[in-house]
Each structure stands twice: as C-alpha cells, then as structure tokens.
Predict the structure of Lipoprotein.
Amino acid sequence: MTTIKRPLAAAGVAVLLGLTLSACGGSYPEDASKKDFCGGLKDIATASTVKGDEPNEAEWKKIQKSYGDLGDIGTPKGIGKDERAGFEVVVGAITDLDYNEAKKSFGDKDGSSDIPGVSKDDQKNAEAFFVYAGKTCASELGG
C-alpha cells in the first residue's frame, strides 16, 4: 500500500490536498472541536492509503468522501483567515474534482507541488492551511 504524497490525493502532517478555482466563502462550519477536526484529517490520511502508486477511481471516491466529511466537520474556532480560506480551497476542490482530471496531477510528474488550476493566492492559502493542519494535529497524524 502506498500513501499518495501528491497534494491532490493524500493527507499528512505537512500536506493536505486541495484544489479549486475559488473559495466557497464560509459554507463550512467554523466551530469544530479540535478532536473532530483532527479526526477528520486522520480519516483523510487513512483514505489516502492506496494499493498502487496512484489511486484508482474507487480509491479516489473514498478520498473525496473523506474530504466531504471534513467539510461537514469544519474548522476549529480561532483558525486564521488565510488558513480558513485554504481549508475551503482544499475541501471544495477535492470534492468537486473529476477522477479523470485528478489523474493528470498524480505523481508530481512535473516536479511541482503546486495545486493545478488554483490561483497563486489560493495556493498560498492552501499552503497556510497545510501548515496549520500539520501543527494543530501533529500528534493525531503521527508527526
């Protein structure tokens, strides 16, 4: 089994996935407990463990569902504005991304860790969220 390291298909201490064309603007809860939030991230990490180097379509659907569940959980109070925007980028993008489009970005073939199709501002916010999640849930994610 392989845990995907691409920001499009895996969650981990420093890397959570994401992509979107725009943030959703607050459609997710903003009062999650740290325990529930970190549990949602742990579920993403579990779903992101795939049999091969890249997820197949069924594995991608599991990854998308885990991100949808994280969206239902939301973020804890006190998350920064940029980090919250990054959360919205991550959740919105993964849950909406078609498998065939996602496949194009698996494996970091271009050497870039940027999230395809995301503006530079959204990319910065997503990176801020990755850092926030890694720090906030380090012990729960094994980091």
Notes: Helices lie at 34-47, 57-73, 81-96, 99-103, 120-136, 138-141.
